[in-house]
Design goal:
Elements lengths: L3 H6 L1 H10 L5 E5 L4 H9 L4 H4 L2 E2 L6 E7 L7 H10 L2 H11 L4 E2 L7 E15 L10 E10 L12 E5 L7 E4 L5 E6 L4 E5 L10 E11 L10 E2 L6 H8 L1 H12 L8
Antiparallel strand pairs: 1-9, 2-3, 3-5, 4-11, 5-10, 5-11, 5-12, 6-9, 6-11, 7-8, 7-10
Helix pairs in contact: 2-6, 3-5
């Protein structure tokens, strides 16, 4: 499924692009997979409303967004995609591009298939930094593969990147085109998200997300996702900034909702 030979033959170029990218380290790779195989995978995607996929539990910071970590259940091509993402060959490619010693989470906690319907959005945020079930796993990178075959610019939903260390930092927009992968660092300053979409009913902003981790002792600054909603009121901004505290209390009382989105 993944075009390993093509990636490996361009590894030096990809590494340079990753390290020099603005506003922070990332890379955009088109034709990431065999197109015919990925089109078959696309045909296997369920309608989340009909199939009963779990909705994102990001409260006020996301809307009409569905998740399924065990996406291999939907068909052989999706199962092959998951296998390729978890392969040692792909791990070595990631290591060479990013310069980080890492591996992909085999359980796709918080990742897997993501589907955003009409009016969906994901506010700008910095991801949690240590795996909630494996406290020695530092979340190092995100891998996002887009599956939007007939994406139209009028639909919106471009991936937004901004360096949170700069108040008025440059915003980069990346169109979520079919067979386009984005690999990016996850740090406290690597803000990302997407604005409200206007996809027609029955069409979804579709992607598969995988997360790369590095084994290291957890630091004292373990945190959950911090939200940086744009053009929002005082209350939403305050809640976003202090969300890790709220999540700790919620998880202690009710457990992790994300773990149930399998």
């Amino acid at each position: 499924m993944i075009l390993f030979d093509l990636l490996e033959s361009n590894i030096s170029k990809l590494k340079n692009q990753f390290q020099s990218a603005i506003p922070f380290e990332h890379i955009v790779i088109d034709n990431f997979c065999d197109s015919d195989s990925l089109e078959k995978a696309l045909m296997q995607l369920p309608d989340p409303e009909i199939s009963g996929l779990n909705r994102s539990r990001d409260l006020m910071f996301a809307k009409n967004k569905f998740e399924k970590s065990e996406f291999e259940q939907f068909g052989p091509e999706l199962a092959q995609l998951k296998s390729d993402l978890l392969s040692d060959r792909f791990r070595k490619i990631l290591v060479n591009i990013t310069g980080q010693d890492l591996f992909v989470d085999p359980n796709f906690h918080g990742g897997g298939l993501h589907l955003g319907g009409t009016g969906s959005f994901l506010n700008m945020h910095a991801d949690f930094n240590y795996h909630p079930s494996n406290p020695s796993w530092f979340r190092n990178i995100n891998i996002l593969l887009y599956l939007n075959k007939n994406w139209n610019k009028s639909y919106g939903g471009e991936l937004k990147l901004r360096d949170g260390r700069e108040n008025d930092g440059e915003v980069k927009l990346i169109e979520p085109l079919f067979n386009r992968a984005v690999i990016m660092f996850t740090r406290e300053y690597t803000l990302h998200g997407y604005d409200v979409t206007s996809f027609p009913k029955g069409i979804y902003r579709s992607s598969v997300a995988a997360y790369g981790y590095t084994k290291q002792d957890a630091e004292s600054s373990v945190r959950t996702t911090i939200w940086h909603p744009e053009n929002s009121g005082i209350l939403k901004t305050f809640i976003g900034k202090h969300m890790p505290k709220f999540v700790r209390v919620k998880s202690f009382v009710f457990g992790s909702g994300t773990k149930r989105n399998k």
